[in-house]
Specification:
single chain, 168 residues, alpha/beta, 4-stranded parallel sheet, globular
């Protein structure tokens, strides 16, 4: 059984899209999705370019959508990737989802030339990829929900390591 993971952001145009597609490519044990509190309706083209050029991931079908698209859906893990989404994250009724926050700077907010914007997107993608490596290494099959929740939350904290074992 695949574990369902939802990444939430405000606009669902960059950070949550990067996380969704990176996790999809990294570990078949997970089914990943993304959504936004106030979706922009379009995925930022640099997010798609970074996924393709640096990770070999085709995200051309990515869509910016509202978290209301998942009303009634059950998730095992819900991760907010921006502070606004964390502050407005809906309750998932009937769900025992682990909820964690992995904040990253908004690369869409970066001003400057194309190279500077790309660097911002690459930094967020690298940070997200590193976090997801740690996430995928958690012992999902044998850890308790409380242990997983604590470890997943810690992944989003600077220079912290999960407290429990390895892949499982």
């Amino acid at each position: 059984m695949k574990r369902k993971v939802l990444f939430l952001c405000t606009g669902n145009s960059a950070r949550s899209i990067l996380a969704e597609y990176l996790l999809r490519s990294m570990d078949p044990r997970f089914e990943s999705h993304s959504a936004g509190a106030e979706p922009t309706g379009r995925v930022h083209p640099v997010a798609i370019e970074v996924l393709k050029n640096f990770y070999g991931i085709d995200a051309s079908s990515a869509e910016s959508k509202s978290w209301t698209a998942f009303d009634g859906a059950r998730f095992d893990v819900v991760i907010t990737v921006c502070d606004h989404a964390r502050d407005t994250c809906p309750l998932w009724p009937g769900s025992s989802a682990i909820i964690a926050h992995w904040g990253s700077p908004d690369p869409v907010a970066v001003d400057g030339d194309a190279a500077r914007v790309e660097v911002a997107f690459r930094r967020v993608a690298e940070e997200t990829h590193h976090r997801l490596e740690r996430f995928c290494a958690l012992p999902f099959a044998r850890a308790t929900i409380a242990e997983l929740a604590e470890a997943i939350q810690r992944i989003g904290q600077p220079a912290e390591a999960p407290a429990i074992g390895t892949r499982g």
